[in-house]
Amino acid sequence: MLYHSRFSIKSKAHFALSFLLFFGLNAALGAQTITSPNKNLSLTFEVKNNGIPFYQLQYKGKPVIKPSALGIEVKDSPSFMEGFEIDRTEVSSVDTTWEPLMGEQKTIRNNYTELLVLLKQPQVDNRQLRIRFRLFNDGLGFRYEFPKQPNLNYFIIKEEHTQFNLAGNHKIFWIPGDYDTNEYAYTTSKIAELPQLMEKATVFITAQHPIENLAVQTPTMMKTDDGLYINIHEAALVNYPAMSLNVDAVNFKMSSHLTPDAVGNKGYIQTDAQSPWRTVVVSDKATEILASKLILNLNEPTAYKDVSWIKPIKYIGVWWEYFVAGKSTWAYGTETNVKLDQDFSKLTPNGKHGATNARVKSYIDFASKHGFDAVLVEGWNIGWEDWIGNWKENVFDFITPYPDFDVKMLRDYAASKGVKIMMHHETSGSATNYERRLDRAFQFMKDNNYNAVKTGYVGQIVPRGEHHDGQWMVNHYIHVAKRAADYKIMVNSHEAVRPTGLNRTYPNWVAQESARGTEFEAMGGLAPEHTTILPFTRLMGGPMDFTPGIFQTDLTYYNTGGNQRVNTTLAKQLAYYVTMYSPLQMAADIPDNYERFPDAFQFIKDVALDWDASYILEAEPGDYITIARKAKGKNEWYVGGITDENPRTATIDFSYLPEGKKYFATIYADAKDASWDKNPQAYTIKKAVVTSKSKLNQFLAPGGGFAISIKEAEASELKSLKRL
Ligand code: NOJ
Ligand code: CA
Fold it and tell me: Is 519 in the pocket of ligand 1 (CB under 6 A)?
């Protein structure tokens, strides 16, 4: 489908764009207040104390952000911190709708009140800065804008000083501030407890750079004592470093902390330019945090003309077996010192290489038989003998296969089976090497029928001294997405900077990992509550390639020894296909394990990837989530529910179903005696009739979950079934 029909902001009958301009005399302009369209939120801006800009945010009369200063510290010239006067302000409102190419709902409403403040610094050559606030019903977005102006072309940011002064000692779901990784486990605590918990939370991760002072990453999720949910993140991170939050745990104040570059600078700006949006999503209902589309709304529509080639992908992979004890390896040879220009066919085979012709063909057969779109193959290319930990520049060339992987034969075999092979580009952090080779790598993909690539950035970044979350790498990821689009290639990045809604602008950047994902189940286990937090944190920024679907949960199965296990029940793994939104979803376990549980596997085969509507039925960060979604363009619904380590009973409402019609529901649930640690594979499958009036109280075991598929059916098929 073409760009125009799917992506442009539609001018609907109710489209309203009104400008009310307030012109005032510079210093005479006092506090400016705007309210959200439904009046629940109010934002006040003023310039005070020596010309410092301040903002504050209230929700239903309660303070969310107390008066907080705004400013940018500039290197080697006066800062954008003080001495400001208001030149002019403009208030406007927007109420439009747009359709994401792929998403949780067909139509997204973009409805906000905007306050644009034009500031000048009379003492500094009349330098200009603008601050744009957009107040939605579900929160606030604001950014700094650096307009083209007579006395400022270039400057370097020393630090951004955006304050978020909170109203109390909130409960907070957090991971440590770090310039290189977002793969930490979440800690839940009070803000005041952060100092004593930080050291324990900062576990070892390959390539990490924890922030020296007390800081947490965004998205940060908080809950106040009186039940207000507050989420702080950013939107449209482009040509700017990612932001962490410094924490003053005594006064409950946070402030922006940008990721530095190799020489310690925090952003190179050429006017006309702007910062990313700083976002504060607020509600007294946790479900509304998950339903928020504020971050997507603050991103630009796509500039791609043709998006017809961008599609949801359900895939399997020669991947999880690399984590299974004794099974197979990415590497082909036993050597531990290799260089790209040597002859890899002369290596000593280790006898365990995973990506062999025979193995890949069997995965293709399995994918074809069960209706998957693609098979990811990792370890197909030379270099894996010596890829990690050496800050090495030329690790992979992205085009040369190992001797036992026949690119053309497998290309033709996959095509004959109607399956795509998904490319894998692990860069080992050497973005320099990747950029040099990118065009040849993408041409190689085109020539061999690949349309999607999983990228990876494990290791310290080359150019040396740069960080995964710095401005240089932020630009790198976007460069890769745009260049991939030139070749009609979809991208799934791992270890990249946390997402900020750019999947709207670059829809071929379909999903990212950028958090502690399923692979950690094989490296110590994810806490049962982890996936009740991720949708409130990491997923606020965009779809996650979480790689769910692990059925084999036993001890001793995984590489790293006896205490390794998957910390969920089998039924909970099914629920993730609904609770962890992504248009790209993996069935991550190995085919053998799916063949042992064909009836549960059916849910993964059936579940949709793209949605007309989503209903967040129940949610509490750290505790539980229940979501129902309607498949795009189909009368099919899927429901997923998860709990933390505690058992619970979910209350599932079906009122979103069309009235007066009976549907066929299949309920995949934990057995009564199931639990993530003692009996994870005990599940039940029940069939029933549901209508819009049905209600179901569903048991979830400790660390458990459930999944439901709902379809249309003939009356005869429904006859013998119980009605819920
Ligand atoms: C880390 C990725 O998250 C994982 O999926 C991948 O297999 C390895 N890097 C190797 O590239
Ligand atoms: Ca990873």
Answer: yes
Domain covering 19-297 in this structure, CATH number? 2.70.98.10
Ligand 1 atom closest to the Cα of residue 322 is 7
CATH of domain 516-724: 3.20.20.70
Of 319, 385, 395, 519, best ligand 1 pocket probe by most atoms within 8 Å of the beta carbon = 519
- Residues, CB within 5 angstroms of ligand 2 (ion): 494, 513
**Residue-level pLDDT at 559:** 61
pLDDT tens for each residue of 526-582: 999 999 999 999 999 999 999 999 999 875 666 665 567 899 999 999 999 999 999
- Where is pLDDT greater, at 19 or 629? 629
Atom of ligand 1 nearest to the CA of 426: 11
Determine phi and psi for 414, rounding to 5 degrees. Answer: -60, -45
Report d(CA 457, CA 181) in Å as an integer: 10
416, HSE (Cβ side, Cα atoms, 13 Å):
8
Which token pair is 372?
């998957």
Marked catalytic residue, from 145, 234, 519, 636: 519
pLDDT at 21 over 80: no
pLDDT in tens, 693-705: 999 999 999 999 9
If you average pLDDT over residues 226-235, what whole number do you get? 98
Find the ligand nearest to 321 CA. 1
620 is an active site residue: no
Cβ of 379 closer than 6 Å to ligand 1, yes or no, is: no
- What is the number of the ligand 1 atom nearest to the C-alpha of 330? 10
Using a 6 Å cutoff on CB, does residue 545 contact ligand 1?
Answer: no
User: Tens digits of per-residue pLDDT, 336-385?
Assistant: 999 999 999 999 999 999 999 999 999 999 999 999 999 999 999 999 99
* Phi, psi dihedral angles at 187 (to 5 degrees): -115, 140
Q: What is the DSSP letter of 653?
A: E
What is the CATH topology of the domain spanning 303-514? TIM Barrel (3.20.20)
User: Which residues of the chain are in CATH 3.20.20.70 domains?
Assistant: 303-514, 516-724
| 220 vs 172: CA distance, rounded Å | 7
Among the bound ligands, name the one nearest to the CA of residue 183. 2
Give 3-state DSSP helix, strand, coil % of the chain, rounded to 5: 20, 35, 45
Q: What is the 516 CA–ligand 2 centroid distance (Å)?
A: 7
User: Residue 88 pLDDT > 70, yes or no?
Assistant: yes
Higher confidence at residue 519 or residue 25? 519
The terminus-to-terminus CA distance of the chain in angstroms comes to: 40
pLDDT at 525: 85
